[in-house]
């Protein structure tokens, strides 16, 4: 005799959906922190990126196949960087969303204050999120 599987309850479905939203929010904030981290060397501007893209176009005409491949990759990377500069996603917006969900997420997943700090989350943000040093 086959047993019938019980479906998920509405509460269970809601909890799963909440967990997915919280996970995406935390991931987006951590990725934004990583990409906003200051890099070594001179900071690039939109103008400097565009100038390099223009030079790449000229270099492609005379490049051997290996150099051409490298230039095409650099062009893709610079185009993506330029697009990210124009995307308008503000770290502060992601931070506010993070603050709303971080405590529940951390408790459910067993993520400590120290782990968040090691991932680059500022102490002031964790305080606003209600995540204590002892957590």
How would you describe the overall organization of this protein?
The mean pLDDT is 88. The protein has one domain. It has 135 residues and is mainly alpha-helical. It is built from six helices and no strands.
Descriptors for this entry?
mainly alpha, elongated, 135 residues
Write the layout of secondary structure elements.
Elements: H1 10-36, H2 46-60, H3 65-86, H4 91-109, H5 113-118, H6 123-129
Helix pairs in contact: 1-4, 2-3, 4-6
Instruction: Work out the strand percent.
Output: under 5%
Count of helical stretches: 6
Mean pLDDT level: 88
Total individual domains: 1
Low-confidence segments:
none
Largest sheet: none
The tally of beta strands, per DSSP, is: 0
Q: Classify the helix fraction into a percent range.
A: over 70%
Oligomeric state of the chains in view: single chain
